[in-house]
Amino acid sequence: MRAIIVITDQRHEREFVSLCASASIDIVGKIRQNVREPNPKYYIGSGKVKELAELCNDLNPDIVIFDVDLRPSQMYRLNKELSIEIWDRLRLVLEIFRKKARTKEAKLQVELANLRYQVPIIKEYVNLIKRGEHPGFMGGGEYATADYLEMIKKRIKRIKSELETIQRRNESRNSLRKSLGFIIVSIAGYANAGKSSIAKILSGRELPVDSMMFSTIATYTKKVKGKHPILVTDTVGFVRNLPVWMIESFRTTFKSVYDSDLLLFVVDFSEEIGEIYEKISSGIELLGREELPPMIYVLNKVDLIKDQGEIEEKVSFLKARRILNDDNYVLTSVINGYGINKLIMKIYETARTARICELSLDKENSNTQKILRILLDKAYIMEYREDKRTIFIRAGMHEKTYNNIMTLLPSSTGNNGGRVP
């Protein structure tokens, strides 16, 4: 699809162009105007609208896309002036979601978001019809438009009911996984931060990963490779300034974050520090609508930073603003694997259901073999050594596994309570 794009905030132009690429949009022209006070009629100035009309006549695009969210009245007036389909930023994001959705859950969430997007537009049509400025939906007048709006509302209600059923199923599956001794870790972050790549390198499994934004729409849960009793769930990536109703449309996806034992917040640490700070702050604000699990900041793509001093300056900046502390972040690179093993250890140290314990097992004790079988089946052995009488083990595990082991140990056996000393 060929498009002319309208840039009203050049600070975020690169992100907007990336969004267009993810929607398979062929940009054939650009109009720029830094807008401080939006024109209530067109958002951009009337002079720019004339310039845009001339560019449309010259280039004959299929659509015009604005890098901001437009009011329905502005979209209608622009369409009337330009005689071409108008998209705003939210419409573009919805198109990306539509293209990427594969599972039933993802498709329902995208449809719900799209219908909610249409509601204020249809209401504006009703107002325009009453003033005699618009013929109505499909030329059917006020009653046909009102009927279409009612149809949308009924469909929204049905989709919500279906998603509630899916959410209950997801919660049951999550409970089962925890009962089996798995630590549940969710991965979130802004689109293109390397979120899906982190999930892929942890699990060793193929997941949707590419340079386009929103390669992940549905959630994917995979086991961390090796003997780790950890499941990682890759969730949908964030994008700036999403309205509340759109976040609520993807509630079943975000619920996987709130129900997890640990959240990995992935950050593209190669970006400018101002951009990093803005994305972390807005991401936490977005997620903070409900209680969050413990969190680790995964400061990714450090391989793109050639100066160690730059890394230290960025970390100090975020520490000064009380985002980072000495224990809640890991520097990583999925290109060379830097920091990945440290990240796994951080999961055991931080997840609310994870335990690291040190055990001294008497070889003569009748329960020692039972404990060893449990550890081999449901724990990750970090350290193992033995002498003639004793086996020493340091291992990471789910608290359920830890509690099972504690019932088999003599009361005098030393351990550290299941946490790192």
What does it look like?
With 421 residues, this protein is α/β, with parallel strands linked by helices. The chain has helices at residues 13-22, 46-59, 72-82, 89-100, 104-130, 141-179, 195-203, 244-249, 251-258, 273-287, 308-320, 340-350, 368-378, 399-408, and strands spanning 2-7, 26-32, 63-66, 85-87, 183-189, 220-223, 230-234, 262-268, 295-300, 329-331, 354-362, 380-386, 390-398. A six-stranded mixed sheet has the order 6-7-5-8-9-10, sandwiched between helices. The longest helix has 39 residues, at 141-179.
Key traits:
four-stranded parallel beta sheet; disordered C terminus; six-stranded mixed beta sheet; elongated; alpha/beta; single chain; 421 residues; 14 helices
Ordered list of secondary-structure elements with their pairings:
Blueprint: E1 2-7, H1 13-22, E2 26-32, H2 46-59, E3 63-66, H3 72-82, E4 85-87, H4 89-100, H5 104-130, H6 141-179, E5 183-189, H7 195-203, E6 220-223, E7 230-234, H8 244-249, H9 251-258, E8 262-268, H10 273-287, E9 295-300, H11 308-320, E10 329-331, H12 340-350, E11 354-362, H13 368-378, E12 380-386, E13 390-398, H14 399-408
Parallel strand pairs: 1-2, 1-3, 3-4, 5-7, 5-8, 8-9, 9-10
Antiparallel strand pairs: 6-7, 11-13, 12-13
Helix pairs in contact: 1-4, 4-5, 5-6
